[in-house]
Every structure is written in C-alpha cells, then in structure tokens.
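Q: How would the structure tokens look for this protein?
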Amino acid sequence: MSRKVLLWCDEETTVHTLSSVLKELKVHVESCPSAQEAERLLREERFDAVIVDFDESDPQAAEVLQRARKSSLNRTTLAITVVAASANVRDIFALGANFLLYKPVSAERARASLRAAYALMGRERRQKVRLPAHTKATIDYAGLENGQATLVDLSEEGTAIQSEQKLPPSCKVYFKFELPDQPSMVRLSAEVVWQDSTGRVGMRFIDVPQSSRRVLREWLSSTFVAAQANLKIEAPASAGASKEERHHDSGLSRLRASAGNRRTQSRRPCLLGAEIYKSDTSVPHRCNLSDISLGGCYVEMPTPFASGTRVEVQVRMREIKLRIPGVVSAVHPGFGMGVRFELRNADHKDRLQRLIQELATTAQGLEYGTPTPPR
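A: Here is the predicted structure in token form.
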C-alpha cells in the first residue's frame, strides 16, 4: 500500500530535505504552499501523515494541525511538526502532534525521525487491545494458496503478521490458524491496511464467523487475565503513584517478554529510536525501543539476536545520551527482543533515570512518538 504524506511548509530547504528523505522511504509527498490548500486537501483526501511547519507566531500553523484532527478522514493520522528549539513542546502536543522535528532539519536527523514515524503511518488508533500472539497461520488470497505467515499480535478487530511474500495492496486475505489452549481453529477474512519493507503487514478483520469470534474472545480474555496476574507480581503499583503512572505501569507493552521474566521495575511505554550493538563490534543495528525501565527495555527489530547475546543499547533524547550494556533475555523472531540492562556505575543509572523521567514528562501529550531534539 503506497503511503502518502501532506507537507505544509514554506521553507524551501526544509521542504527539499523532507521530500528527499520521504522519497527514500517510498512515500508520496503532497506539498502545498498555503494553509487554505492544506485544509482543502485534509477535507478531501486521506493521508498517512501530516507534516506542519509550526511557527508559534503564525496562527495558521495551529489551524492546519487542528483541521487535521477535526477531519473525518484524518483525525487519527500521524501528525509531525517542524519546530524551533525554543518551541513550547507541551502546547504543540496538546494540539495533537505526535512527533517533533527540530530546526534546522538536517538529512540525518530527518531520516532517523521519519523512519520511526514511518513504522506508524497508516495504523489507525486501535479501540481494542492487542496481545502478542506469535502463532503460525495459513493465508490465501488472489494468486496464492496455503501461504505461510506468523501472527505477531492479535485483537478482536485485526492482527499484524509477518509474511514471506509482499501482499497486493487492499487485497482480501483468508486466514486459518490455531490459538494455544483453544480446541477450534479460527477461520476468517481480513483486508490489508498497511505493510512495510520488513514483511510486516497490518490487517483489519472484515468477515468473522461467530464460532471463530468466540474462540478469539476466549483466548484474548484468558491471555489478558493471565498477563495482568503476572504484571501484579512483577511490578505492584506504588501507593503514591499518580493515576497516569498506574495506567502506564499496567500497560500491555510489557507483555512482549516471556511470563517467566519477572521484572522488579515497571516499564515506561515509549517509541525511541535507538542503535544496538553486539558487544565487541562497532556495527550499529537501527531499531526502536517500545518500553524501558532501570532493569531493561524491549527492542523492536525483525531479526533479533540470540538469547544470551551481550549487547550495548545506545539512545539519545534531548541532551541525554546513553550507551547501556545488557544481555538479550527474551527473543521473538520477526518482532523483537527483551534486553536486561547491566548498569555498571552510578552515572549510567542517573542518566537512565533522567531519560525515563523525561518520557514521563512528555507522555501526557505524546501518544505515538518521542521527540528527538537536536544534539
């Protein structure tokens, strides 16, 4: 499925840089010179992301961003704002921004941030919780019978799969799979919503027989209850924690690690661009962190390292730069891996605490991304 971005910006160099990077990602860019044109397009077309050059002294910038959020076609579209380093981040997130790009926009910085944003383009904000599945499935669609795929996650409304073949855009796919501890096979059909270059495909269910829906609900309910029980053992909520903190601590982002990995620290959901190195090598593997704590993190990458591999995770956020040693403790092929940190000194721990606190501070307005200010 071809992805499309609306770009509203009047700085020629910024437009050139962003357009070049998006072209590398094979994203079509609709660049418009005026706020009126941007608002018209937002009313008439569906975009996977909207990029707004946000000048706090220009009310049109806020109007374009708000127009996207009020549009029936683009209210859940990813919103990226290009801002000055002195911008009021909280106010911009409150208007509906998901990512920030700081000026001046260099190709390197744009590439890192837009790659992180690219993974979320086209994914609608889900109304139903998804749980990790990692179950083999058989798929059929026009031109393919008995194809093999792996369910990455699953909800009542849809799934993400890892597929060996690139699926045709907007095609109807017929699924057949079994879920652990369920007596009946699930049979249903779905449509492609998004797919990326790693073979990951997002699907929305469209025809689900009642018998298959019952199996889905029973498995999701029992898995969710079991996961909550594990979370209560791993990280009991502090009596003094805020409502927001308790909500994050009971979040499902921590369910990706195995149930046997009993954590002593609650993890902060995030979307942080990072680099991970195998110990004693200088080759970086670009990835995203989807949660983090003083004890470890979850690294999203399609080809995770083997369990027990010693690694170093490098993260940057605002003025904070970390390179933390750790060891791979849980592996999910096609999805990612859990890493247990091995903090070697007080400075490592202090800077990691600062980064987690920074994530907590920006979480109120940041649902899908983490800003990457200039270094």
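Residues 123-127, 228-264, 363-375 have pLDDT under 50 and may be disordered.

DSSP finds eight helices and 17 strands in the chain.

Upvote if useful.
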